[in-house]
Amino acid sequence: MERLSGRVILVWGFKRTLLSILAGAVGVLALPPFGFFAAMFVSFTLLVWLLDGAAAGPDSGFLGRLWPAFAIGWLFGFGYFVAGLWWLGHALLIDADEFAWALPLAILGLPAFLAIFYGVAAALARLLWSDGMGRIAALAFAFGLVEWLRSFLFTGFPWNAIGYGAMPTPLMMQSAHVVGALGVTVLAVFVFAAPALLGTRQGRVPGIGLAVLIAAAHFGYGYYALSLPEPPAGGKAAPVVRIVQPAIDQEAKMNTDADRAAIFDKHLSLSVQPPVDGGKRPDIIVWPETAVPFILTDNQDALTRIADQLDDDQILITGAVRVEDMGPGLEPRYYNSIYVIDGRGQIIGASDKTHLVPFGEYVPFENILGYLGIQNVIELPGGFSAAASRQLLTLPSGIKLYPLICYEIIFPNEVTPEIRKADAILNVTNDAWFGDTPGPYQHFLQARVRAVEQGLPLIRSANTGVSAYVDAHGRLISGIDFNEQGFVDATLSSATGSTIDDRMRNAYFWLAIGLVGIIALISRMGFISRAN
């Protein structure tokens, strides 16, 4: 290991650039659909050794001394985000004549921008760099801080935060309930980077010892949490939820009125199929994001047909476009919404999306970028509008669902205190935009981790992949894979009943940041022994 680390530290020029990019790209193997979390050990061990060799000239100023580390971090991030997000280009090929020109921006431009965060992380870590365990702690501190920033700066895009590589299975997800996905990122980076100590010897015993302790706690808490008995059910019988996945080709949604009618019929047909193996009739039926391919409130016949198909005590929950008339001479506003419809065809509840997808649902700085010909991938006049707040969906039975539409579920900070009143998380999405690529599976993992964080079951309906019912510990109870058409019925299970809330999780996250930061700082100051 020492010989290998020496070669990596001393590599230079094009080889150094290529190795930095490859180090980031290798880490993507820890993410879905692969789930090979050991790849992160290779990725971060190489990053530590590369940063060990990130030396600037003796006459360099402050920024000049940080530049070599920033460049390595940026190259590492570029490799990680290109390998992990290349599938975003698939959405532009749905209407290739209109958007193919933007492929380089999606496949290379966005990763180049996101890589700046990892460049900053590497530069920040280099400020606290020292021999031994301290530099591992500095890297964990810096990555934890920039992943937190990435979750909200520039509207936020925390997709594939490093911590998800440490949570490929329910056993390895449970720590997120205590420290959150961002807290797992802090601790995971420390553990993933620890093998670098084998190659440089300094601080090997305390550093690897602490990493083993963290890993043991991660697995141990997972085993403990999964072994706990299920909370007792309430007085009422738990409802049966039917999750519908119609697997409609995205291009068909953009075609004729006849195609839209056929799409609506397909959803209805799957909703009224008899339960498999003679099971209980569903009480709640869930359709995916924008499942209704027209303005539902303008189509009374559609509501009548829903009423004809549902029993009086059944509930349909569907994604739909909601339109709001702004008055004479003004353009209407469109919202990406969820409707709750009762057995009489009446809309009895609704919630609008609050966090929109840039360039998908709205164009930032539209006055400027619109003049340059840049427009939404989704064709709506003026794009979607964002709602000011999220509405908890309360069903006639008293069941409360916390709605998160599409990629809202990747944001831990999108969750408000209202979720403490909810019985389950509801996520409707349409991942057909991304085809049979890693994207839908990465999205599903992040949705499962939200369920674990909140200690709530997850009801997830996707147009195609991955529709599923997940319990409060992130375990897949039943689901439908990508491109499969059908439905699954599941009985709504209980929440974990945990008293840990988002405020406590945030406190534990900052505690983890503080601890590794202190280790890095006192090591930098020379107070930690360099014992082997």
UniProtKB/TrEMBL annotation:
Compartments where located: Cell membrane
Membrane topology, from the record: Multi-pass membrane protein
Protein origin, superkingdom: Bacteria
Molecular function terms from GO: N-acyltransferase activity
PROSITE patterns tied to this protein: CN_HYDROLASE
Domain CN hydrolase: 244-494
CDD domains given in the database record: ALP_N-acyl_transferase
Keyword Transmembrane helix applies: yes
Keyword presence, ATP-binding: no
Its EC number(s): 2.3.1.269
Cellular component, GO, one term: plasma membrane
SUPFAM superfamilies: Carbon-nitrogen hydrolase
Residue intervals passing through the bilayer: 36-54, 66-87, 99-124, 136-157, 177-198, 205-226, 507-527
Record function comment: Catalyzes the phospholipid dependent N-acylation of the N-terminal cysteine of apolipoprotein, the last step in lipoprotein maturation.
Similarity annotation: Belongs to the CN hydrolase family. Apolipoprotein N-acyltransferase subfamily.
Protein's name in the database: Apolipoprotein N-acyltransferase
Species of provenance: Rhizobium leucaenae
Source lineage: Bacteria, Pseudomonadati, Pseudomonadota, Alphaproteobacteria, Hyphomicrobiales
